[in-house]
Amino acid sequence: MKKIILGILSMLAVATIIPSCQKTDVAVTSEITPDTYPKTAAQLTSAEGPVFVALRADYAGSYWFTQSCSTDEAVLPSFGPNWIDGNKYLELHRHTWTKDNAWVTSNWNYLTNIIGTTNQTISIFRASAPAGAAKSTSLAELKTVRALAYFMMMDSYGNVPLDTLYGSKDLKTNAKRSEVFNFVESELKASLPYLKTTVATATYGLPTKWLAYSILAKMYLNAAVYTGTSRYDDCIAACDQIISSGLYSLEPMATYLQMFYPTNGPSQKEFIFAIPYDASTSNGNMFFARYDLNRNLGIRYSYSGSTAGAYTDPVINQSTGNGLVNNSPSGPRMTTSEFYAYFDDANDVRNKQWLTGQQYWQDGTPIMVSSTNLGYNQFYTGGSPKTTYVYSLVLSPLTSSSVRSGTASSFDLGNDEIAWNIGYRNIKFFPDYTNTISRNQNNDMPIFRYSDIILMKAEAILRGGAPTLGATALSLVNQIKAVRTTTAALGSVTLSTIYSERCKELAWEGWHRNDMIRFGMFENSYGLGKTNADVTRRIFPIPSTAMSANSALVQNTGY
Predict the structure, then answer these.
(1) Is-contact 286 445, C-beta < 8 A?
(2) What's the rounded Cα separation, in Å, for the pair 125 and 66?
(3) Residues 55-76: pLDDT tens digits?
(4) Residue-range domain boundaries for the chain
(5) What is the pLDDT of residues 168-208, one digit of tens each?
(6) In angstroms, rounded to a whole number, what is the distance separating the alpha carbons of residues 473 and 475?
């Protein structure tokens, strides 16, 4: 299914973009012109392809890094000379980014590219497509994707330019955050009557009415942050539209982790909207599952106690006869001890998304790693630096004392195997080890899941919204816990409970920055020297490149 979807998108990205420079003496072999394409319902659906190519392009890259590595959820320290990369990771973690930070810039480019591509496609449809239900649906789908991109921009950058007319040469200045909020709300509401309601393979990865309601619910939950006015009853109403549809349900404990496997897709009962990825066709694939683990022959093959055994590991048999691993462990992206503390229920299946402590082969044998005295510890001063050193692979938590080299302000864990074994790794989006071509992955990335809708409604009720459909905040949270843990149901629930539950449920899914800001946690101190409590960091600066290209833009306060 994924290959079919992405094949169509890739093909139509070519078919719908006409090059501006070409030879004039080439014989005409196609009669695709604005007069002939797109006209039919199938052509309209296929011609939307470039928009979805743009959407998937950097969601798991720049967008994920800005949303997760700016929080206590994820951090990528340096290891000696490795992963310094212009301090773009350090700046995200410590909230010291500038308008020239590489991630801040590439995320802006990613989101504006979605908007620009959508504007172009909308312009083509308005000029070429015949009036009718198919055109109305396609335009509604395109506007919903554009609304999603504008929501992400508003959330990340605050006051951003509203530019919806393709071909306009007028430089747009920043619109107020509240104006962008109102625009996204009006676009989604206007699109609702024309969006499809079917949840099936044919609509997987496409904007439906339920995606529009999900975006609205997320906006209304954060309305006090964006506009200064709370909209909790509106959030609940949007959530109720999805809940009352009866089209979604929570995955049981036995299949929770499988939602994120390389084999995930249209069959997932919780996915309201997901970006399909295919390792063989997508350069912008959701790479980070393998990215964290691909250099680690110890960590990458040690997902013991899970149902991941369906994936046969061809490299595991290359260990030596005594069970040693002859390659250095690595995998730089990790979580902080502050975030991992929320995983405090030993009976919760969501704990299995983490690699922690002693690592084992699938038969239960501890993983042993073969190195040298100096390779294991760069500060070794004995007389046998090249002598073989064998150790048991144990991951230690990342704490403020994990820095072993440089000054107290260092972001460097060291350039040895002790350093590579610091930090708990997330393997929620479990790697597909049958893919030997690249680090790209087949795991589809959910943007909205049903469990998020349940938790948003529970939070909105606790924040003052009126309960509906016979549900309370407590019953909603217990509805999720009933399929995630064997621990007894909760007897009460607070906003702190909701926050903890969101950390457990939505880890590594790109929502944690949004949550930390709403719960007033973004200014906390955590990890490796994150102490900056400046509230202006709740939005990113407009990149220098954007300011240079558009002189009408005004920089955000504090930058």
Answers:
(1) yes
(2) 33
(3) 999 999 999 999 999 999 999 9
(4) 288-426
(5) 888 999 999 999 999 999 999 999 999 999 999 999 999 99
(6) 6
